[in-house]
Amino acid sequence: MPAIVLVGAQWGDEGKGKATDLLGSRIDGVVKFNGGNNAGHTIVINGDDGSREKYALHLLPSGILTPGCVPIIGNGVVIDLGVLFEEIDGLEARGVDTSKLIVSGSAHVIAPYNRTLDQVTERFLGKSKIGTTGRGIGPTYADKMSRVGIRVQDLFDADVLHAKVTGALAQKNQVLVKIYNRKAFDVQAVVDELSSYAERLRPMVADTSLLLEQMLDRDETIVLEAGQATLLDVDHGTYPFVTSSSATAGGACTGSGIPPTRISSVIAVIKAYTTRVGEGPFPTELLDVKGEILRDNGAEFGTTTGRPRRCGWFDAVIGRYATRINGVTDFVLTKLDVLTGMDEVPVCVAYEIDGVRHDELPMNQADFDRAVPIYEVFPGWTEDISKARSIDDLPRNCRDYVDALEKMIKAPISAIGVGPGRDETIVVRDLLD
User: Fold this and answer.
1) Neighbour count for residue 396 (Cβ, 10 Å)
2) Which region, left, alpha or beta, applies to residue 136 given φ > 0 means left and ψ of -120 to 50 means alpha?
3) 373: which strand partners?
């Protein structure tokens, strides 16, 4: 079975974890291919007794919760080792087996100085800040591109690790002390901190590109899971208000070592309205009571940071863009139930920029900053849809809304989330078919 790419179609927080979970026991492996602990997936699993277990994942692939599935952290990820083991320990304390986890030896490690640089830089930027999580993600990717980064494999050679930390701090300590008036980092202290994780990490480390090739040759099903989302991609997102990695389908290849010829489909997760966290343009943002209703009903608070998410109406221009950039074959529409009770539901079908209509995302970031949404308004619904398990179970107005979105975003909606639970989903078409 070829590999399947799973991406977010908006600014993140669309529910990619639930989409992975929806594929269930038929998945043999899940690869996280980009990002770090600057984003998270929340997965709700319904127990046989009617209870609900909520799991918040940050570094670990969502496949960690699927028995028999091999969870893999790919080479494109940057890893805070303290966070990784804290997350593992938290899951194991709740009875989750994490013994199958595999980590790429080529993944980069977030060093303590990366976190500090991230935080002081954001403070220095003031009103011009990007809105990062301050967890060292951007500086670690910058080190990677500058070829002064530390990789997982470096932790197992004391001389190499010491030399790399020494080289990195020769420049970074100058910046910290002379520009930001912060204390310099001690080389040995950093080496000791990173080395302290080595022995526990060693059994998990492998050549993940080779492993994935072997799994695909055995006709096993692999899901390549993105962190963040299309509009946060460093190349294709709303730059500079983006993440530091490739969160689109193309990044799945570079972040995992799987060639594009082995990818069979691209599943994009898209919310029935739009949210984003952090700074940057957001044409459909609601700064009124309706925005508060969406935030409260949708529990729109960051999985990793707890920050309230900015909320707005569905943006079909962004949806079409995601289809084009990722080559989307299937959409999973999430949180449709959050719109229940709205008298009417507007959808942004185009933008007006300086008096001119734009049906596609403008190339110029300055134009996007000035974009005014053009809305088509749909009648709402009041019926509870959480028990719906087929399209026919949805009220007429709700079905019309879904049908309209599908036409606007130019790819089929193959699954619809009508509640937070694992089973609260309408499957229109088998995502593995």
Assistant:
1) 10
2) left
3) 351
Q: Is the link from the previous residue into 259 a cis peptide, with omega within 30 of 0? A: no
Active site residue 13: yes
Run of H or E including 161: helix 158-178
Cα–Cα distance between 259 and 264 in angstroms, integer? 11
Find the helix or strand (DSSP H, E) in which 253 lies: helix 249-254
Mean pLDDT, range 264-275, rounded to an integer:
97
Using pLDDT thresholds of 50, 70 and 90, give the confidence band for residue 421: confident
Residue 219 annotated as catalytic: no
Q: Name the packing angle between helices 187-195 and 112-125 (round to 10°).
A: 120
Give me 116's structure tokens: 């500090």
pTM: 0.91
Average pLDDT of the segment spanning 55-77: 89
How many angstroms separate the CA atoms of 7 and 247, rounded?
7
Kindly indicate the confidence band of residue 278, based on its pLDDT and cuts at 50, 70 and 90: confident
- Find residue 238's DSSP bridge partners: none
Q: Quick check: 414 and 332 in contact, CB under 8 A? A: yes
DSSP state of 71: E
pLDDT, position 30: 93
What is the arrangement of strands in the sheet containing 102-104, beginning at the earlier edge strand?
Answer: 205-206, 102-104, 70-73, 29-32, 222-225, 3-8, 263-271, 330-334, 413-417, 425-427
CA torsion sign for 195, 80, 240, 172 is negative
Q: What is the pLDDT of residue 277?
A: 87
Q: What is the pLDDT of residues 172-210, one digit of tens each?
A: 999 999 998 899 999 999 999 999 999 999 999 999 999
Residue 17 token pair: 């974890």
DSSP letter for each residue of 373-416? EEEEEEE---S--TT--SGGGS-HHHHHHHHHHHHHHTS-EEEE
**Which is the catalytic residue, given 13, 143, 154, 337?**
13
Tokens of 269: 């997760």
What the block records as the tokens of 31 is 């690869």
Distance CA 13, CA 20 (A): 14
What is the spatial distance between Cα 57 and Cα 60, in angstroms, rounded to a whole number? 6
Q: Return the CA Rg of the chain.
A: 22
Active-site hit among 41, 58, 108, 236: 41
Pull the structure tokens for residue 387.
């028990």
Q: Is the pLDDT of residue 344 over 70?
A: yes
pLDDT digits (tens, 9 = 90+) for 17-43: 677 767 877 899 999 999 998 766 667
